[in-house]
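Fill in residues.
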């Protein structure tokens, strides 16, 4: 088990100092951080705490998970590793082929799409010229 804990359900008024005080009852607190909105500076209602050892972290989970602080129920669990950031465009479109042009293989593999064949005009246009 890792020493880093996720703490959810925090009241918006909780500061990093208060978070440190709450968890210090369960052991040594290496750091405590309340996550805040980058534009407003207001707490987002969750944070992270790193305890001195895995045993202290487990003790904090058992003691504080489900407890009530200022009318809100705390969620205390082992923190998961951060996922790499993926930009919004990359989520929607995947890897870019450069300038938004799809390769012939991508077009052929697209569900419900047929590649346009330049040498075969649609039958309704056959023989018509401008």
């Amino acid at each position: 088990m890792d020493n880093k804990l996720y703490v959810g359900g925090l009241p918006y008024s909780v500061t990093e100092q208060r978070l440190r005080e709450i968890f210090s009852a369960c052991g040594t607190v290496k750091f405590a951080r309340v996550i805040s909105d980058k534009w407003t500076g207001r707490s987002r209602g969750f944070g992270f705490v790193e305890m001195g050892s895995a045993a202290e972290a487990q003790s904090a989970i058992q003691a504080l998970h489900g407890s009530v602080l200022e009318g809100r129920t705390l969620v205390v669990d082992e923190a998961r590793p951060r996922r790499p950031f993926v930009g919004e465009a990359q989520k929607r479109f995947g890897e870019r082929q450069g300038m938004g042009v799809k390769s012939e293989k991508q077009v052929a593999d697209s569900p419900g799409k047929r590649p346009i064949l330049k040498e075969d005009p649609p039958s309704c246009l056959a023989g018509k010229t401008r």
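The first strand starts at residue 4 and ends at 8.
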